[in-house]
Structures are given as C-alpha cells and as structure tokens.
Amino acid sequence: MEFDAQVIAAYGRHVRLRDAAGRIVQGRPFGRRLQVVCGDQVRCEEDAAHAEVHVTEILPRRSVLARATLRGTAEPVVANLSLLVAVMAPAPLPDLFIIDRYLCAASSAGIRALVLVNKVDMLEGFDLAVLTDGFEAAGYDVLACSVETGQGLESLRERLQNETSVFVGQSGVGKSSLIRALVPGAELVTGELDRDAEGRHTTTSSSLHDLPQGGAVIDSPGVRDFAPAIESLEPRSLGFPEVDRLSVDCRFADCQHLQEPGCAVRSAAESERLDERRYESYRRLRRLHADLKAAQGPARRRD
C-alpha cells in the first residue's frame, strides 16, 4: 500500500514518518541514492511481508538547506524550511564564522534567517554588541533569550509562529533546551542525545516538533564546522547580503572582491563601511569555495 508522509525525524539510514492521518511509523529509504532528510515530504510503501515501511520517492522540495562534503558535493541537511534560526551563546565560545556560513547557505537557498543569542543570563564578560553588530548591519534580525530566566522566549515564539524553522549552530548552545521550552512535553527521538567530550548532552539526529501556536521547529545536530553546498551559493556574493548590495558598484561584473581593482566591496571594508569581521568571513568562504571546487575534480567542474 502506498501513502504520503512527512519525515519528522532522521537518524542514520532510518526515519520517523507521519502520514496525513497523524499515524507515526518507522521507515527507511529504499535504495542508497535516496537522501531523505527531516522535513521532507515523501512517498512510502508498506512491505507487509517484512513488516517494513520503505520511502520510495522524495516529493518536490520547496527549499533545502545543504552542506558541502569534503569532495565538494552537496549533501542535504533539512528540507522545506521557511526560516533558519542560527543559534549562538556565550558558552561555548561563539564561532561567528560558522554562523555566517549558515546564514549564507540560507540566503542562497531562499530561506529567511534569524540570529538568536541564547543564554544571555551568562553574558558576564561578553559585550552583546560585539557578537551582533555585524549581523544587524548586514540586515539580519537578532533576538536575545534565556531558557533559564525566560527572557526573550515570548518574542521568539512570535517569530516562529506559522513558520517551518530549523535551529542550527555549535554543539552546546542550547538548541534542544530551547525546543523543550517552546514545546512543552516534546519527546526527543530515541538515540538523539549523546554526550560531548565535556559531558554535555548534544543532539545527534534531526527531529521536527509542532509548535503550540502553529508551525514547526526542527532540532539539528550541533556542529564544530559547517561548509555550505558550493553549487547553491550565489556566485557574486556567496550569500552575504551586504556584499551583494555593494557589488553593483564594482568595476568588473565578475569581481570576487579580493584583489581586483575598482572593487566597491573592498573599498567599503577599508573605509569601515563594511564590517571588518564579516568581510574577513567572506574572504574565508571565498577561499573555501575555491578549495571545494578543486576537490570536485576536473570532470565534475566541467559539469
């Protein structure tokens, strides 16, 4: 029997599925080439003889957040999003370059984005503006919150209403704690929690949770690094909105904003009209883009 379903959790080669009637079943993709991720809408077939549910087809995606593998190929992470929430916190030490790369991946995929600073009750010794000014100057909305004190949670609920969103960021920034605060009674998928080297719980698979006010949020595994899928990045700006705005005044249409003469982006960085850290982040991503392109090999690059 065939039926359509939504993937509400993905862990390894196994998925948890919810059909139109709300029935939840376990399943697995049928075939190694089928890259099914949380948020996907899929077609399934029940194999009664083996008491299994097979995912046989991925239905058209409205959007997909993808990362690059070491070989430079694209690997989907989550699908059918309307909003990406890039989460950081005072601890662990924020890696703003990871946040930048997630934001670029979202921008290039047509997914709106929000920067969320969690654990603001632990901000002693941190200047919040140092963390957020570059993002706000680029045009991103920034929210600050704390699960411990409840600060900012109501504003976050309002932003997530009727969205299909994903929380992304480093391990330990509190994404799962945020979801438990937003979705009372949310059950974490079996095998979803592990411990990092410091003994903290960390998510090891993706799971989707319905929000009481409408919409859904996906909890994703924490990362130590993230590289956007290079084929989906906007070639002129790599997904940096401020670079995109400035680049229209560059002398050359194919300017990469590194060493070219007449570069409006580099000029803005030198005159401090462009955030210095964000420009350095752009330069790093441009170099990574070139490295991953080279890793694809000549045949792939010709394609």
What is the mean predicted local confidence, pLDDT?
90
The stretches of 5 or more residues where confidence is low (pLDDT under 50) are 188-203
H/E series, N to C? Answer: EEEEEEEEHEHEHEHEEEEHHHH
Q: Pairing-aware structural class of the strands and helices?
A: alpha/beta
Beta-strand residue percentage:
25-35%
> What is Rg?
20 Å
Number of strands: 15
- State the strand order across the main sheet: 1-2-3-5-4
What kind of sheet is the major sheet?
5 strands, mixed, barrel
Q: Count helical runs.
A: 8
Q: Termini separation (Å)?
A: 39 Å
Kindly state the percentage of residues in helix: 25-40%
- Rough outline: globular
Report what the structure shows.
The protein is α/β, with parallel strands linked by helices. It has helices spanning 96-108, 128-138, 153-160, 175-182, 241-247, 264-270, 276-295, 297-302, and strands at residues 2-11, 14-19, 24-29, 41-47, 52-58, 64-68, 74-79, 83-88, 112-117, 141-144, 164-169, 193-195, 201-203, 206-210, 216-219. The strands form three sheets. Strands 1-2-3-5-4 form a five-stranded mixed β-barrel. The radius of gyration is 20 Å and the shape is globular. The two termini are 39 Å apart.
